[in-house]
Amino acid sequence: MNSASVADVTLRGLGVCCAVGNVVLHGLLVPDHLEEKFYIGLLFAVGSAVMLVVTVGLVTLKRPMGAWLTGAFVSLGMIVGFLLSRTVGLPGGYYEPGWELPYGPLSLIVEAGFILAFLAWAGQRSRPRTVRRPSEAPDRTRIAPGRRSGSTEADAFPIDVRSATRRRSDVDRKRATSSGSSSRAVF
């Protein structure tokens, strides 16, 4: 499994969790809202059914763009409906004065979470996914520690090794001849 598929599975899983949370939260509110304002309860029921289909689509489809888009639009519509119902009100004089704890904040969290998961999923899909095999990688030569790319051996070793070795050999020879016939070994 490559990193793109790990991200895909993770984001789909997050989207599924948010969609299921949306279905559960709005499903619990349907009966009360059908009695209070029928069309609000009906919108909750339809929204829950659509998000259930989105959940199935995210799990089963090979290319789930349609499921993601549908879920994102439904989630955005629910967020806008929530905000309008608490500010200017909805048609038919429907106005909610409070946050309807805990359902209101939890609904906003799962709806915003779904939208963010969709945006992250769409963003990771738009990045180029070219993976180079070692045989296709550009040819690179190893550079010894302390060396810069394009530098010569003279840059890396400021002392000429050959001339230093030659000088040492000359010194050893002079010692050997000056010691004469001593039994001392010269290394």
Question: How would you describe what is shown here?
Answer:
67% of the residues lie in helices and 0% in strands. The mean pLDDT is 82. It is rod-shaped, with a radius of gyration of 37 Å. By secondary structure, it is mostly helical.
Tags for this model:
mainly alpha; single chain; rod-shaped; 187 residues
Layout of helices and strands:
Layout: H1 3-36, H2 38-60, H3 65-86, H4 103-126, H5 153-156, H6 161-178
> CA-to-CA gap between the ends?
61 Å
Categorize the overall geometry.
rod-shaped
- How big is the Rg? 37 Å
Order of helices and strands: HHHHHH
State mean pLDDT (0 to 100 scale). Answer: 82
In total, the number of strands is: 0
| DSSP summary: helix tally | 6
Percent range of helical residues? 55-70%
Strand percent estimate: under 5%
- What does the main sheet amount to? none
Unreliable residue runs: none
Structural class: mainly alpha
Brief write-up:
This protein has 187 residues and is an all-alpha fold. The protein has six helices and no strands.
